[in-house]
Design goal:
The chain has 15 helices and 8 strands. The chain has 408 residues and is α/β, with parallel strands linked by helices. β7 (311-317), α12 and β8 form a beta-alpha-beta unit.
């Protein structure tokens, strides 16, 4: 009997060991596939970028070299963010939302414990009823050329801790697509996110749309074009599904000669810019650029559609050399004149990347953008101060050096 029991236990142990080994191998295989998929997308972006470099000026090559140095200085922080993205179980990666190339999105879903922490405000009794979570749909920037949904991982990681579901949308970049293609992709991604919000535990009445840099331009265009369709039953979502829009360092006047000249000086050749904006090379390019201008669209449909559009928050660094601050300063009165609610936030001594990348790397006490976003989403001030301070991802002097070499 003893021999029989012992042999049975050994067989059972071998089965358990085999099962554990199999599960471990499956997890390892899944992680390897995810890492491989991320690397393939990053390589695709750089391959397209190298293709573009053959058409662009020498100073764009200099900018690319500065970008490599910037990335090298912050590499340990980027590795930590990348590891979080690849391994965190709260992330649903690579969800297909449309039929076109690069029509994928990532969903960051906070745990119920994180949601309860926000309800408590850092302490006190928890609510028994499970709360639906606010939702953020994020459209990343990248000069319409190097955008990638993973660029939103740092922001999504911060919002996770406050019980916010974040959905980061990918879209076709130039030269894979032009502005109209990008807006189509972004609109389809927003539609998917709006319709999936409740099934993810999100509150369909608290969906905010956030765009950064070129992503703010595309997100604003998508929202405004959707508003012009009113209550078309064929559409999968409507402008009134969005409770708030936040534009971070956005572009809103592509038809501006001043902006075109600025981009040309910065290395984005005007002919490339015209191609991105579907303006061609004719003498009527300004008229064509207006078709992809959020500012011109507001003038066209704003008064009639103001009642379905959400409140706007425009955020900009006063020392932004990539997207001039006047883009937000001029867009705000255009919105206001159309009867659309708009607020403005300008950060002194901050450029294009400080609010979105460098400040979060320095820890939550430096992250003014996060505080403003949380205030906008929850309509409560000082929420980030109720949580423990996050450690620095890189020493301050390294971040300051990175700030000096950043090309954007």
């Amino acid at each position: 009997i003893h021999s029989f029991i012992s042999s049975k236990e050994r067989r059972s142990g071998r089965k358990e060991k085999t099962k554990t080994t199999t599960e471990s191998a499956q997890r390892t295989g899944t992680d390897k596939k995810m890492i491989g998929r991320v690397m393939r997308n990053v390589l695709l972006i750089f391959r397209l970028l190298f293709k573009l470099l053959t058409f662009l000026r020498l100073n764009w090559i200099a900018k690319f070299l500065r970008l490599l140095l910037f990335s090298a200085l912050l590499l340990p922080a980027f590795i930590r963010i990348g590891w979080f993205y690849v391994t965190d179980g709260r992330i649903k990666r690579g969800i297909k939302y449309g039929k076109n190339a690069r029509n994928f999105l990532d969903v960051y879903v906070p745990s119920d414990e994180e949601d309860e922490d926000v309800e408590e405000g850092g302490g006190g009794e928890t609510k028994q009823k499970k709360q639906l979570k606010p939702v953020v749909i994020f459209v990343t920037g990248g000069v319409w050329i190097i955008g990638y949904r993973v660029w939103g991982a740092l922001l999504a990681k911060s919002l996770l801790e406050f019980g916010v579901i974040t959905i980061c949308i990918d879209y076709r970049n130039f030269p894979q697509g032009v502005c109209g293609d990008m807006v189509e992709d972004v609109a389809n991604g927003i539609g998917y996110a709006v319709n999936a919000a409740k099934s993810l535990g999100g509150d369909p009445r608290k969906i905010n749309l956030i765009g950064q840099s070129a992503g703010a331009h595309l997100a604003a265009l998508s929202l405004l074009k959707q508003a012009s369709l009113r209550d078309d039953l064929k559409e999968t979502w409507h402008a009134k599904d969005i409770i708030g829009f936040v534009g971070i360092s956005g572009i809103y006047h592509p038809e501006s000669e001043e902006l075109i000249a600025h981009f040309d000086r910065q290395g984005l050749h005007r002919k490339i810019f015209f191609s991105i904006m579907e303006a061609g090379f004719s003498g009527r390019h300004i008229e064509a650029l207006g078709r992809n201008s959020p500012s011109e669209m507001v003038k066209l449909i704003g008064v009639e559609c103001a009642h379905v559009l959400p409140r706007f928050l425009l955020i900009h660094g006063e020392k932004d050399v990539s997207a001039p601050t006047r883009e937000s300063r001029n867009f705000a009165p255009t919105l206001s004149n159309a009867g659309i609610s708009v607020m403005e936030k300008y950060y002194k001594s901050k450029g294009h990347v400080e609010p979105f990348i460098l400040d979060p790397i320095l820890g939550r006490s430096e992250d003014v953008l996060l505080e403003d976003l949380l205030t906008f989403i929850f309509r409560r001030e000082g929420l980030s101060k109720t949580f423990k301070r996050q450690p620095l991802m890189r020493p301050r002097f390294i971040v300051e050096l990175a700030k000096r070499v950043v090309p954007f």
